[in-house]
């Protein structure tokens, strides 16, 4: 029946903490869900977005109105499964077209058990979030008691979520002719961080977020990679303490996103929650040393307060071109550098993938130095 | 890195006349650039031969030369003005090529002039085929197997090696002129020969044909620090094989996953880095639909049509930023105008989809081939902004002015299913409509994809529209159906038609469109861009914006002129923009509504607010409801805006300027006749008819020749001169093929001097800035005639009569603002041919040469000011010290099968101006600027290498051609003529060599003669017919293909001879800075 697309369809509503209600159509899994509503301005890479563990506890809105155009496949996911609480799009494409397409978005969400809502004015929603800051909300289908729901929505907290997305046991990914051994601290890592390392000749040991400093040191790594991840960085007290213990070991360290924030906190800096965060594939970041601006992929709701980085520890190396917030720190007390954005891309621009090369160089340099000392 | 301290005075090179492949987008770019440079405190010198542009306005630059864009002239301007630098990348291919020639000849270095934007090395690497291939290879960017060749043999040999089909791309030509796809050896022979000849360096690229791959473009920017960004990605609806200028294009890309998207984005950035472009750059890729394979098709290291589209699609002002980069700024220090707080070093995020739809000239050129290929054919384009592709297409079809409001093309509904299936194979201008028809017939998406190779995504989306329309047509029209159709941007009138039900009868709650903002950032930051598009959602951002910016200023809406087409070109944008500027000066809020992405009017900082939407009744109704304007201005937006007058009046909106009833009086035949009678002004006798029978009767009563045209015409569309019954018959057949809403007019045709005036009236007084006289006698459309200001051959009495008639007509029509009147002077009598109570295409050039700011005055008048109070006296304004000659420019080499014989139907796409102290010099400059070549130098005469002139004219011209032939002979040219013409010339003692016509199948034949290269000029006029198969048409087409100057009017030939006889070179004529006039 060809009119089905117009006539049938499950109704759903999006309810915001401020009481605003959007009426739309349900797609993906059936049911209702509460979460923190955030928006991303990325125009491609919805499958990468859906599988980015950093979105744990959040309902993600796509500002680009046409989502699902090229379908989904088994290769693009950035993690096993999806951590998002819900998904909001203006229009979900039911006839995707791409040579790698293996299914449509609706079926994909059903498979991942993610509740979605479409056919709503996502620009209006984005403007509300932009003006009021990130806000909790719920996607509901069927009748609901608004007052009770609002109570639940307002009570919701993303909370400590790293534990939900991190591996439980260590995992090992050897590279062909691996040259370096790298520990990847998994706070909710995106697969492409691992792929970028393996591609560059690193044997990667993925460690759970709660691995101790001694366990890590015991692996005798050439470098430590601190991954991205969800939630408020300051909630991760144990992980921060672990990093504090690792700093004196002077192991080459590279941090991304939550990893960047955690190392900063371990060094005595502070973090803050941004009004509505940076999420998308078009964020300009200035590398202060190079005096060059790069377009980056970002997904974060918290940022390191640049001024709070102790002079003795290091200094801000990158700033955001739009709002001037801290986007990277280069440490002087240890061979470490961290960035707030995502050089591993997926989705988003690959313009800063050179940072992985720098990490390799950093490991290489120290090797030479330590050999020299030995001699 | 701020402004370079070594730059103080910059020469900006414009792109010249509007031709297919190089249109208004360069006026937009040039205007943005000039303003940006002036804001930097630089002294700007400008050269552009196109007077219809805003960039050649007096306040756009410090010194302005409306002079031919030839290397010699540019060199002289540099010698006179001594700029320290030249901007190479803002004036299209014309400026880029000139810059490269200036640099490569060492001229710039000699004169200590720097090349800004793209340096010579960059231009060479991007434009020279081999250098480009080498550069791409060096950075690992795949190119299509190809070879640069300089002769036919090598081309054929390489094609054998890589296999057919192959694509031929000539080096250094505009919009791919002379290129094409060859499926066979024979085709390659023809295309390669042509391409080699058209390339200024006799070089073509033969490459493997990859038709069917996706075509994807990226607009990228780079500064001298090496910061790089992409402004926008675009995906073509038509796969590789159709020129991107002729394809429906969407932005951003829709069928690319992040992996493919980032792969191509990175490739584009690597390319601009390798080429070291400082400014904007366009990269075109072909992407294999079933793998990650891709190839770089083309790179343009300059601002282009695509960058104008990208600017309008995203709100990112590419040309402005490129100009600032050229003078030393970097992306991270240029403020993003849209947010006012962030910088230009970011990538726009869109939260809508943009659809670009081309405007082709085939409604005028009925016999021309409508097929599409690598040679661009569109004269203009429109852009639609919408939340979905379906809605975007719906807005696009009604913006393109084909009298369509859905994707259904009437003539396709008459075809059988088999015929539709067969028609799908044609790659032509109607392909998207054919796909739609096929879907309606139930032909599967897969089948359509297999035939057309159009991505299934696009076909599925069109199918959604098909399904929606079926749903609407079935059963009762419900609110749900109505709301769904509105979401896809259907007009109420369309919904009523498809459903066969009235909204009112069904109790449907009608919905008007609301507005969303274009803000470059998908609402991430609060922006104050006054740039909106209509959609059907609940929020009205425009209304919020208006509320947040309260003002007691009068709000005035100015309607633009839609897509650029033959007959309604850039001139109308010039007028709209000037109107807006004046409104702002006069303390009004000037609101623009237009849908053309190539123009200055749709730059979001031209007006107080910009609405990028279709210009239909319902779209306008929503705008009026949101803006609640004090009034609307329709007289500057050509026929497009004029057509809205009736609707606006019905909505109760105040029309500022001449009223609807008076506009009607000028356009309605009967009302107009009454008016003329009242004024006692004669016009050529005529009648109104509906059928062929009536037409033949009227024609015989009036006596041949007669002029036939539909009432309510635009640019002489479908207008012919009939000399006999057969002509009338042929014409009526074509015109009655589509439904006749308006009658056909038949007039007695008078072959006299055509005169044109533009006047400004306030109801009491009127000013005629100047009287223009046409070189060609009546019968050739005014837009295609060489026009002279001030008139050279009219007596004082005739001038007085013209002034008198103009006053009477203006007053009788209650003109408030501008009026354009065309007269014919025949046997010392003045007859009126046409009155247009609106701006015209001559307004920009007359404003510039007379110094009377016509649109500014007209705008003030429609706001209530009087000419008297502004210091103008009623009557004819004193003539200037300079003579200005406007010469039309055609794009015949791009439109195969179009007869280049001029007639009452307009064919030119653009114009040039020659300004000088004397008529002769002005004409000479104008002709040079328009690309006429001057042969017959003294050296040629001395060494006997003079060329020839081929003459073949109709009987009525035979008498006149004797003198012309004799003057050519006198100059040393050899004369060739066909049968009848030759014998007339021989009888009159002119040594004309007889050549055979094509159908005589004997040698020497006109075609072999034209191919021999011995002919410099062709003079050809024929009795009748526009069919490409006609002998005379084939001869003229051959001349066009061989780039031989072809004159199709005796008067034009005389004018050319006047110039040849002056024996001047461009070095002899004085260059004029028009700011000093």
Task: Produce a short descriptive summary.
Chain A is of the alpha/beta class and 375 residues long.
Produce the secondary structure layout.
The complex is a heterodimer of chains A (375) and B (1077).
Chain A: H1 4-7, E1 11-16, E2 21-28, E3 33-40, H2 46-50, E4 58-62, E5 66-67, E6 86-88, E7 91-92, H3 105-112, E8 115-118, H4 122-132, E9 135-141, H5 146-155, H6 162-165, E10 171-173, E11 180-186, H7 191-199, E12 202-208, H8 213-218, E13 223-226, H9 237-246, E14 253-256, H10 258-266, E15 271-287, E16 292-304, E17 314-320, E18 326-331, E19 336-339, H11 354-374
Parallel strand pairs in A: 3-4, 4-6, 5-7, 6-8, 11-12, 11-13, 13-14, 14-19
Antiparallel strand pairs in A: 1-2, 1-9, 2-8, 3-9, 10-12, 15-16, 15-17, 17-18, 18-19
Chain B: E1 9-13, H1 25-39, E2 43-47, E3 63-65, H2 71-81, E4 85-87, H3 92-104, H4 107-110, E5 114-116, H5 120-127, H6 129-138, E6 146-149, H7 152-162, E7 166-170, E8 180-182, H8 185-198, E9 204-208, E10 214-222, E11 228-236, E12 249-251, H9 258-275, E13 279-287, E14 294-300, H10 305-314, H11 318-326, E15 353-359, E16 380-386, H12 389-399, H13 410-413, H14 417-423, H15 431-440, H16 445-452, H17 456-473, H18 479-487, H19 492-499, E17 514-517, E18 531-535, H20 541-548, E19 554-559, H21 570-585, E20 588-594, E21 609-612, H22 617-627, E22 631-633, H23 638-642, H24 645-650, H25 660-667, H26 669-679, E23 686-689, H27 692-702, E24 706-710, E25 720-722, H28 725-735, E26 744-748, E27 753-761, E28 766-768, E29 771-777, E30 787-789, H29 796-812, E31 817-826, E32 829-836, H30 843-850, H31 854-862, E33 875-876, E34 883-889, E35 910-916, H32 919-929, H33 938-942, E36 948-952, H34 955-970, E37 974-978, H35 979-987, E38 992-995, H36 1006-1011, E39 1015-1020, H37 1031-1041, E40 1045-1047, H38 1050-1062
Parallel strand pairs in B: 1-2, 1-4, 2-3, 4-5, 18-21, 19-20, 19-22, 20-21, 28-33, 36-37, 36-39, 37-38, 39-40
Antiparallel strand pairs in B: 6-9, 7-8, 7-9, 10-11, 10-13, 11-12, 12-15, 13-14, 15-16, 17-18, 23-26, 24-25, 24-26, 27-28, 27-29, 27-31, 29-30, 30-34, 31-32, 34-35
Helix pairs in contact in B: 1-11, 5-6, 7-8, 14-15, 15-17, 16-17, 17-18, 21-31, 25-26, 27-28, 32-38, 34-35, 34-38
